[in-house]
Amino acid sequence: MKAALWYGRGDVRIEDVPEPSPGPGQVKIKVKYAGLCGTDIHEYVEGPMFIPTEPHPITGAKAPIILGHEFAGEIVEVGEGVTDWKVGDRVSPEGYWICGTCHWCQRHQYNYCENLAFHGFSAPGGFAEYVVSPTYQLYRVDDRISWEEAALIEPTANAVRAVNLARPLLGEKALIVGAGPIGLTVLQALWASGVSDVIVVQRPGVRLETAKKLGAKWALDPDKDDVAAVVAEVTNGLGVDMAFECAGTESSFNLCLRSTRKGGRVALIGQTTSKWSFYPNDIGFYERTVFGEVAYCGEFAIAIRLIADGKINVRDLITMKIKLDDLVSVGFRELMENRRNHIKIIVSPE
Known about the structure:
The chain is α/β, with parallel strands linked by helices and about 350 residues long. The protein has 11 helices and 18 strands.
């Protein structure tokens, strides 16, 4: 089968590899679409970040590894002992491979697993014609969701978890810095939770325009608009109740801190390999809470329902569909060189 393998920094190759076979408790999935994520770009430009160079203790995988952790497809084969799933089922897998025995797995907080592996990094991923998943990863894809939309269930689950961790209350105000796929799904998840007074900060392009379309009450360009003045005006000088850092930069994190009220919450979602500087008293003196977010832990079912019910629109986030052969030459290049004109690029291995 055809697959995209990460060999090293700046070295991703489209190659023919053997088709996988499902083991006991596993299924083989024919991938319909897979999403190209910013983390894939980080691995290409700066990696290895999450890709192991020694065999992973759960999966045994190491570089070179098949990329792709946002995907959905159809079951084409089931392994020994699988009774709850059948050939033809439409599924979207959580990315996790877990040990099931560590402190966190025993507490059902499996996204903290001490031995965690992940499709596309430490287990073969979805930038391939076929992929094998253990059944504990699987969620049924609602028939109302197209295959293209199903590729965005995974990032939507990320956004749902971030919003749930922020514990929004009706009538609160929020700030989102960075209107990529995560920022735009956070925006819609906030609306679904009853928070509609949302400020989105993003430089001009399709991302900012889409934020306006999807419900941002204030859509600001940080190079032209006085973000601090707008925040002060709409919150009577108090600051927003919660802020979501979705850009992965020092300046965006500090903007989130400065824009949040006393006792407010800041969600750190964006990824970076850089160290940041900030003033600790901006947190301590104002009793602000800063928290991280590690993917998801059961949010797939919620994400699927929100997409199927039309409460989160992922269709308008898809700005390009490409074939697997074009992953590097078109997909990676577009997101690195033409990012303002894209939100989510999805890949068809067929």
